[in-house]
Amino acid sequence: MGHNSRGYQASRPNKLGSIGGFVVIALLGLLIAGCGEDKAAERSLIATAPDLLPTPTLALPGNVDPLKPPTPIILPSPAPPGGALPETVAETHSASAGSTPIPTPTDVPLPEGATPRELLEFGRTSAAEGNQVTAAAAFRAVLQEPGDLTSDELTEAHLGLGVALMAEGQNAAAERELAALVESAPSRGAIAKGDPLPGSMTAADIASFHLGQVRLALGDYEGAIDAFTAYLSNNSDMAAYVQPLIADAYEASGDTAAGDRVIAALEATADAPAQRFRAVANRMRLAALYIEREDYPAAVIQYDAIRDIARTEATKGQMSYLAGQAELLAGNTEAGHERLLFGVMNYPRAVESYHGLIALLDADVPVDEYQRGVVDYYAGAYLPALEAFGRYVAGPGDDFNADAYLFTAWSHEALGNSEAALAAVKDYAKYEPVRALFERGEILRRAGQVNEALAAYDTFLADPSDADNAAAVAWTAATLADSAGLAGAAKRYLFLADTFPFDGNTPSALSRAAELLEDDDPGQALALRQRLVEQYPANIYGAEALFRMLQEAGSSDNDTLDEATLVRQLGTLSLSNYFALRATDFAADVPPFSAKNDIALPDDPEAGRAEAEVWLSEQLTAVGETVPDGELGGLSDELAADPQRIVGEKLWQLGMLEEAKAELEAVRESYAGSALANYQMARYFSRLGLFRSSIIAAASMLNQIGATVYDAPIYLGRLSFPVYYADLIMPLAGRYGYDPRLQFALVRQESLFESFARSGAAAQGLSQVIPDTGAWIAQRLAWPDFENEDLYKPYVGLNFGAYYLSQQLEMFDGHIAAALAAYNAGPGNAARWFATAGDDHDRFVDTVDFPETRLYIERIYEGFNAYRHLYDRP
Fold first, then answer.
1. Is 161 helix (H, G, I), strand (E, B) or coil?
2. Helix pair angle (171-184, 203-218), 10° resolution
3. pLDDT per residue over 757-788, tens digit each?
4. Least-confidence region, from 46-55, 112-121, 733-742
5. What are the C-alpha distances in Å from 130 to residues 125, 433, 751?
6. Strand, coil or helix: 721
7. How many CA atoms, within 13 angstroms, populate the side-chain half-sphere of residue 414?
8. DSSP-derived 3-state class of residue 256
9. Burial classification of residue 240, based on how many CB atoms lie within 10 Å of its CB (0-12 exposed, 13-18 middle, 19 or more buried)
10. CB 302 within 8 Å of CB 284
């Protein structure tokens, strides 16, 4: 691979992704459309951001209730703290079987005979479940009859009532409650369960912040500023999040001096600790104000600061361009051109670098022809790119970069001229003959010339020991031959498997070769499956091979398969994938999605922790981690004192869940390499209520020590497969007649128990219900006063998901795989697959021709089995 003096590497999109030393960063997208000649052509192109491909809305089948909108393919996506809603209230807001409406009584029912302390816990739980009306009623009842509650508990009830009123839009009442709390409880203790960590806030601090919010909403801007300022006096580390709110209040006030005060507030965020995106947003807002005031040097300082903290080429290029424009506006022509040129030379894929190139050309500033061509290429200005590369090739310097021929080839290809592209690759072969063979194959493949492309790949692979990333090229050649239906595809897959036994694609290659040979050479196909089981038992393809052989042994007279031997081989599998679990169930004659015993929820969530930590200490030592003395589960001193963790927890306590998640996820990622830190964070995030991050940390910990939920202590497995919202899910499962493990597994797959989750398909909440489906469910359940945002409330999202799941189970006669397919891909598609496959689980899964949906069913099967193992009643 040739390099220019600036360290830039040529890159071109291809299905192989990164091919080691000679295929680098993939093309991010064509940001510019059009063509032309020289500067005028380049200037004529309008930069546009690439559109995101939407998730398709699936067609509604003709035999389905026209009021029922189809559910699109739902992807897991990014839920607030949650406990469990007592059954009395769960029943009030849950769907009953059939079409009985679910009323919301004017007088909210509270648990009969509950003590004040039980009512306080009930209020906490209701608030966490998103049921603020019930929470407010519970907290109000506590304050009316406090019994023997402590002053701190009463303070918590006051705060809970104020927050619940605010959440329900009763800002005036909330303002009175919060203001009284701030005045009466300035020194009350932290609102936290267990021992407060560093940075835990007092109730008065939290009330001050919320008081600022409600006053801002009420138009009391001076009062809002006072409240936010009071909060910051005890929480200066929160400036990046609170000073922008103060700036909002100044802007809204219309004060003649507001402009200076807005800038002062935003300037106070400059050095405050904050997650990268928040810091960028604050600095961009400040820079815009400086530009508006024509304080260009101050704006440049902000753009430079953003460029320094940014991680993507797009943002770095944008900041270089904006800084250059600011310098030009200030009359600093030379400095402006230098910044524009810096962007062109260092961030060629940023759309603003193309704008900078145009500005430089308009000003007759010399630009390196190679780099000019690169920027044009990534902007989609292919003709100008060809002209620039032509000039570069015609007059090469001492550091000639042969990648100019590659960009020339790709530009010709983009313009539809494959012949010229191949000619450019031929020129490139004089410098990089091996890679040129690969590039020739890629161009021919994209042009649909399959045989010619395969010939190029075969020449490349003639001596694979001398070719970097030959395994990736062999995989490309095999999959190309396979997709074209060529007879030699199986042979190509075997070449990959035999030549590169440790390549990540080898198990897949063996599996596909067995499928291709099954009809013509069943003996060899069987041998390949046995090879898979013996050599790759921990791989899903090895597990699938054993499962297929078990199926065949149980349904045919094939005397080459000994079922007893195959069953013994189950012990070599890792129970970490669908087919390993399916094979185990199949051999034991356990029906899919079934359990012998009822689910058993732990009475004490901490049960088994001590024994689990002894076991974990041994595993940590085995993988080379230092194990501290004493219990392992508390945060280390380093984690506890981490400023980003402290800010994240404060944001969570303030109800700023998305912002808190961004901060705390950054913390998790910083410590992700340590299994011990992952264990500690899994416990911490679980207690906090950041369930998604807790599950990810727990799963990472198990992976790092080489364990699964089936061989780790139950306590550790339950961190990865928790039963959050059990007091909602258990009654729902009973009401609709399905195993609660099914809904636990579904919610884990959909949202990882994160109630503020939302997907690119607009699916929302714990159950990832799309708005149209939510509106339909609300209509069917007569759910009062439904608004789309209600889907983010756990008690709503779980009720709606349970109802929709029950409808699919009813539609498909209790066939769980079909119901899950309908939940994920729409009932019409599920009906099509069901009509083909019938009620046989394995035949149905094999029939599903949406890879996402098949994977969805498999993942929930894995989850169901994990819950069956971890919560089994003896």
1. helix
2. 150
3. 998 888 999 999 999 999 999 999 999 899 99
4. 46-55
5. 9, 64, 16
6. coil
7. 26
8. coil
9. buried
10. yes
Spatial CA neighbour of 6 closest among 484, 353, 358: 353
CATH label of the domain that carries residue 417: 1.25.40.10
State whether 730 and 705 are in the same domain.
no
Which residue, 720, 747, 764, sits at the end of a domain?
Answer: 720
How many domains are contained in the chain?
4
Question: Which residues make Cβ contacts (< 8 Å) with residue 273, sequence separation at least 6?
Answer: 237, 240, 643, 644, 647
Question: Are residues 731 and 640 part of one domain?
Answer: no
Query: Of 721, 723, 677, 667, which Cα lies nearest the Cα of 699?
Result: 721
Supply the pLDDT for residue 187: 53
The backbone torsions φ and ψ at residue 677, rounded to the nearest 5 degrees and listed phi first, read -65, -40
The predicted model scores a pTM of 0.86
The H or E element that residue 804 is part of is helix 794-811
Identity of the amino acid at 185? A
CB 595 within 8 A of CB 872: yes
Q: What phi and psi, each to the nearest 5 degrees, are found at residue 94?
A: -95, 160
Residues in the chain: 874
Tell how far CA 95 is from the center of its chain. Answer: 30
374: nearest Cα among 336, 408, 422: 408
Same domain, 737 and 832: yes
CA dihedral for 370, 372, 373, 378, sign (positive or negative): positive
Taking residues 50-65, what's their average pLDDT? Answer: 29
In a domain, 6, yes or no: no
Q: What angle do CA 362, 367, 368 make, to 5 degrees?
A: 155
Query: Average pLDDT, stretch 779-803?
Result: 95
d(CA 496, CA 23): 20
User: 298: burial class by Cβ within 10 Å (0-12, 13-18, 19+)?
Assistant: middle
Q: 431 and 550 in one domain?
A: yes
Give the domain range for residue 230: 130-255
Residues 792/756, Cβ–Cβ less than 8 Å: yes
Q: What is the DSSP string of 3-46?
A: --TT--------TT--BTTTB-SPP----EE---SHHHHHHHPE
Q: How far apart are CA 824 and CA 856, in angstroms?
A: 7
Task: Provide the annotated active-site residues.
Answer: 750
Q: What is the pLDDT of residues 404-435, one digit of tens each?
A: 999 999 999 999 999 999 999 999 999 999 99
